[in-house]
Amino acid sequence: MEKLDGQSMKILARIRAIFVAIEFSITVLITVVFMYIFSKNTRPVRRFWAKLQTYLIGFKIHTKGELCEKTTLLVMNHQSLLDIVTLEAIHPKDLCWVAKKEIGDIPLFGHILKAPKMIAIDRNDKRSIVKLIKVGQERLHEGRVLAMFPEGTRGRGNTLLKFQSGAKIVAEKLNLIVQPAVIVGTRNVLDSQNLLANGGDVHVIFLDPINPHEDEQWYEKMHDAMSKTLQEHTSS
């Protein structure tokens, strides 16, 4: 079989991405309906949807390191929409994602945050950190694990952006046990910004959990450790 050139590969990746966008939109809306039906326990619905995406989009998840049972805040680097899908597919507990308010404001699709009681914050409102601490405490009492992207926005995939202060404040105020995770490959599998989808492998590396009260420089050291891990796995 004749090998496809770069332009042909890009066209196929674009076609595949269009298919993913259509199926993603349809399955999200169906998932929202089922989450309202099973509002007392949305976790199984989200896990089924996430695992379905691995099949429909065509990617495999590989993990390294151990998940800590005592973790109450999971922090990750952010590259793609698939970051959330990946963790929803593999994490054993009911994650409560902290997301920007704009997602919750999207007609119909915003219910992907409202139905499972995720936390939507307005990054332009200084009072949002107060809401995050208050609602975060409520979700923790429900037995959930908070999940945040401390970069605050998507990176390019091979480097780690500067961390925003929200995760640090929440962890210290609520006495959380923080576990960092480094995600590699989701941007290559699905680049939603450039509308390209290729399938492939996604790797999640769980680093050692951190107790913020044991080291005043924990946040900076965590950034360094995650950055080093990301560079090691993207350069190999």
Automatic annotation (TrEMBL):
SMART domains listed in its UniProt record: PlsC
Main location group: membrane
An example molecular function term from Gene Ontology annotations: 1-acylglycerol-3-phosphate O-acyltransferase activity
A GO biological process held by the record: phosphatidic acid biosynthetic process
Transmembrane in keyword set: yes
Alphabetical list of InterPro entries matching this protein: AGP_acyltrans (IPR004552), Plipid/glycerol_acylTrfase (IPR002123)
Annotated family: Belongs to the 1-acyl-sn-glycerol-3-phosphate acyltransferase family.
Protein name, entry field: 1-acyl-sn-glycerol-3-phosphate acyltransferase
Originating organism: Sulfurospirillum barnesii (strain ATCC 700032 / DSM 10660 / SES-3)
Lineage: Bacteria, Pseudomonadati, Campylobacterota, Epsilonproteobacteria, Campylobacterales
